[in-house]
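Lab notebook, design round three. We kept the backbone fixed and only want residue identities now. Task for the bench partner: fill in a sequence for the structure below.
Input C-alpha cells:
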C-alpha cells in the first residue's frame, strides 16, 4: 500500500510503528500479569464499521498475551433458541472470571447497529436495548468489571478502498460478505444508527472512545496506548524461575527411529543446491569477493595487475585452484539476485489492511 490513505492523510512510517508497537505489546504483557495477580476482570468492546480495523487491532493487542487468561469473543448470529432468551444472556456467558481479559470483536451493540439497520430486530426490541444497555453495563461495573468501549471510525472512501483491496487478495477475500456490501449502500442508515447509539449509551460510567482509523497502524498504537492509560496496573516483580537439573538417564533406550512415523521434511525440499559461495552470501557473491580481496595478502609481484578470480569449484567441497597472475581486468560483477532471493532477503511488511 502507499504512504497515504484514500483521503490523502500521510500514514505512519513503518519503523516508528514497529518500534512503538513492540514497546506497547510489552506493556500489555505487564498489564496482563497485574490482572492475573490481582484477580481483576477486564472487558474491551471493539465496535465500528466494516473494514475499520477492529480485527487487526485485536490481533496486535493479543499477540503476546497469555491465551489462557485472555481471549477473543466473536459471536456468530444467534440460534433460534438464543433468540428467545434475554438479549444480553448469550454475552454474559463470555464475561471474564478473575484474572481474565475478554475482547469482544463486535458485542451486544450489534442490536444498535446491524440488527436495527437490516431489520433483524423489531422496533420494540431496539428501543428496549437502548434503554437496558446502560443499566446492564452499570451492573457489570458495580460487580468490579473494568469495561472499555471503542468505536473505530473510517471514512467511506477509505472503507471502499479496503474492500477493493480485500477483493483482490485471495488470503483476505473471506472477510468480504454480502453484509459488507450493504454497509456501502446503507452508509447513511448506519451513520444515523451510530449517532443514536452514542446518544443513549455514551454514559459517564462507561463512555465511548472513538478511534480514528484512516491509518490502521496509527489506530492500533492509539487504542493500545489509551487502554493502557485507563487500567491502573502496576509492574510486578516476576517470581524467579529455577530450571532444575535433568537427572541422569537410568536404563532408558529410545526406540529405533524407524519405529515412528515422521512428517516429511517439506521445508528442506524447497532449498536449491548452489555452490557454497553463493549459498552463504545469499546470492551476493560480489560482496563476498570484496571481503576476500580485502583480507588476502598482497601478491608477490610488483605489477599492479590484480590476480584473476578463482574458477568455480567443480563440487561443493572441492578446493579452488590457486590464482595466477594475469593482465588487469575489470573486477567481477556481483552475481545477479533472482526475484526469489530478493523476496527472501526483503523484510516482512506489516499487513496494514488486516
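Proposed sequence:
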Amino acid at each position: 500500500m502507499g504512504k497515504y490513505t484514500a483521503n490523502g492523510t500521510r500514514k505512519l512510517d513503518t519503523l516508528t510503528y514497529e518500534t512503538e508497537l513492540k514497546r506497547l505489546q510489552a506493556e500489555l504483557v505487564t498489564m496482563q500479569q497485574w490482572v492475573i495477580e490481582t484477580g481483576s476482570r477486564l472487558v474491551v468492546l471493539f465496535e465500528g464499521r466494516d473494514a475499520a480495523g477492529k480485527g487487526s487491532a485485536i490481533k496486535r493487542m493479543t499477540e503476546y498475551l497469555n491465551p489462557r487468561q485472555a481471549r477473543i469473543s466473536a459471536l456468530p448470529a444467534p440460534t433460534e433458541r438464543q433468540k428467545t432468551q434475554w438479549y444480553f444472556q448469550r454475552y454474559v456467558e463470555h464475561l471474564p472470571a478473575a484474572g481474565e481479559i475478554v475482547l469482544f470483536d463486535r458485542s451486544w451493540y450489534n442490536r444498535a447497529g446491524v440488527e436495527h439497520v437490516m431489520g433483524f430486530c423489531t422496533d420494540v426490541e431496539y428501543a428496549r436495548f437502548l434503554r437496558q444497555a446502560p443499566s446492564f453495563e452499570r451492573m457489570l461495573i458495580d460487580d468490579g468489571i473494568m469495561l472499555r468501549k471503542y468505536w473505530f471510525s473510517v471514512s467511506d472512501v477509505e472503507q471502499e478502498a479496503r474492500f477493493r483491496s480485500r477483493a483482490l487478495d485471495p488470503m483476505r477475500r473471506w472477510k468480504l460478505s454480502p453484509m459488507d456490501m450493504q454497509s456501502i449502500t446503507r452508509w447513511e442508515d448506519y451513520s444515523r444508527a451510530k449517532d443514536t447509539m452514542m446518544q443513549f449509551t455514551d454514559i459517564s460510567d462507561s463512555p465511548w472512545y472513538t478511534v480514528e482509523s484512516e491509518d490502521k497502524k496509527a489506530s492500533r498504537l492509539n487504542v493500545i496506548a489509551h487502554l493502557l492509560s485507563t487500567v491502573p496496573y502496576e509492574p510486578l516483580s516476576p517470581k524467579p524461575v529455577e530450571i532444575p537439573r535433568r537427572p541422569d538417564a537410568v536404563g532408558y533406550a529410545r526406540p529405533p527411529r524407524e519405529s515412528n512415523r515422521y512428517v516429511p521434511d517439506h521445508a528442506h525440499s524447497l532449498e536449491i543446491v548452489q555452490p557454497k559461495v553463493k549459498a552463504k552470501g545469499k546470492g551476493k557473491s560480489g560482496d563476498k569477493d570484496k571481503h576476500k580481496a580485502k583480507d588476502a595478502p598482497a601478491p608477490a609481484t610488483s605489477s599492479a595487475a590484480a590476480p584473476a578470480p578463482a574458477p568455480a569449484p567443480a563440487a561443493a567441497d572441492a578446493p579452488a585452484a590457486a590464482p595466477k597472475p594475469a593482465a588487469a581486468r575489470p573486477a567481477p560483477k556481483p552475481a545477479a539476485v533472482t526475484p526469489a532471493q530478493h523476496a527472501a532477503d526483503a523484510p516482512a511488511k506489516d499487513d496494514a489492511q488486516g
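Keep this in mind before ordering anything: Residues 296-354 have pLDDT under 50 and may be disordered.
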